[in-house]
């Protein structure tokens, strides 16, 4: 039931005697769907006994117009007028507008509830792929770029890859065959270095002391600290992250030696036997027992096919 203050305000409103501030309080109160039933009961009570409070001379057209204008949103091309010539006509119109307003506010409150409960769509997630000893992985990205990940390596990217940018992070070794996109350069972040490419093919390794980016096709830019170099096919950028000075050296390289692993081969050119043994252990996922009398410093050239 209405408290005395609110009942008094509603009666003044129905009589057309409310001040602008009091009208505003009524309109705010009517925004609560629960208020409509109480408002209707009070209105019926007053109009069933008009001599009590409400004068039959009240401008009901203006009153209903105010409710329509202030509480319902204006609708273009749907300007309504209320021609009320009797108390009965006013009650019929008032009942109708109560139904309309009540339905409007119920729908609005439902919309607000829905707005609050709608969860964020497709949250961005970080995706990581890791290879163990003796494992290799080939990924085809949403843009068609192909990434071959060598053993004991990890590559990471966001689930929205390609939507705004194309960025991956690498720890280990991988070969990238990048689909061209001038608006979204392909970027690899690897142990403090950034390699930027539009459409190209290159190999990145952070496994050994000398980290390297070897370009086989296209053109890339390599950034390490404040130093930047541009590579052309057949060139390799080499740097040592353990050193404070991030100087980048550009060298020529043997494409077969650097990239053969992605095709299932290991190629060596005057490599120490000790280093070859370490690579074979990772390649096959095994451990070799070395004869103490074996000279592992001797240099060997050759290749191994992965037939296991």
From TrEMBL:
PANTHER family linked: PERIPLASMIC SIGNAL SENSOR AND SIGMA FACTOR ACTIVATOR FECR-RELATED, PROTEIN FECR
Domain FecR protein: 131-221
Limits of the Protein FecR C-terminal domain: 266-306
Superkingdom to which the source organism belongs: Bacteria
Molecular function terms, GO-annotated: sigma factor antagonist activity
Taxonomic lineage: Bacteria, Pseudomonadati, Bacteroidota, Cytophagia, Cytophagales
Organism listed in the record: Cyclobacterium qasimii M12-11B
Protein name: Putative anti-sigma factor
Pfam family, one: FecR_C
């Amino acid at each position: 039931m209405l408290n005395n203050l609110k009942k008094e305000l509603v009666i003044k409103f129905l009589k057309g005697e409310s001040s602008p501030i009091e009208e505003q309080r009524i309109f705010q109160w009517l925004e609560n769907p629960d208020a409509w039933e109480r408002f209707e009961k009070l209105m019926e009570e007053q109009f069933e006994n008009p001599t009590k409070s409400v004068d039959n001379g009240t401008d009901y057209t203006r009153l209903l117009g105010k409710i329509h204008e202030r509480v319902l949103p204006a609708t273009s091309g749907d300007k309504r007028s209320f021609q009320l010539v009797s108390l009965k006509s006013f009650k019929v119109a008032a009942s109708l507008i109560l139904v309309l307003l009540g339905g409007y506010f119920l729908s609005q409150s439902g919309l607000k509830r829905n707005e609050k409960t709608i969860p964020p769509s497709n949250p961005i997630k970080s995706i990581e792929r890791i290879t163990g000893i003796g494992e290799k992985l080939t990924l085809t990205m949403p843009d068609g770029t192909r990434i071959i990940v060598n053993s004991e390596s990890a590559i990471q990217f966001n689930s929205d890859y390609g939507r705004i940018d194309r960025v991956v992070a690498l720890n280990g070794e991988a070969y990238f065959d990048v689909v061209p996109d001038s608006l979204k350069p392909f970027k690899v972040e690897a142990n403090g270095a950034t390699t930027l490419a539009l459409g190209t093919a290159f190999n990145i390794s952070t496994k050994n002391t000398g980290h390297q980016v070897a370009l086989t096709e296209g053109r890339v830019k390599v950034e390490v600290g404040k130093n930047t170099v541009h590579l052309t096919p057949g060139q390799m950028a080499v740097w040592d992250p353990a050193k404070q000075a991030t100087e980048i050296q550009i060298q020529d390289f043997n494409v077969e030696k650097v990239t053969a692993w992605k095709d299932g081969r290991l190629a060596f050119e005057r490599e120490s036997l000790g280093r070859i043994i370490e690579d074979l252990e990772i390649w096959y996922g095994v451990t070799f027992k070395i004869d103490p009398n074996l000279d592992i410093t001797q240099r060997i050239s050759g290749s191994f096919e992965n037939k296991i």
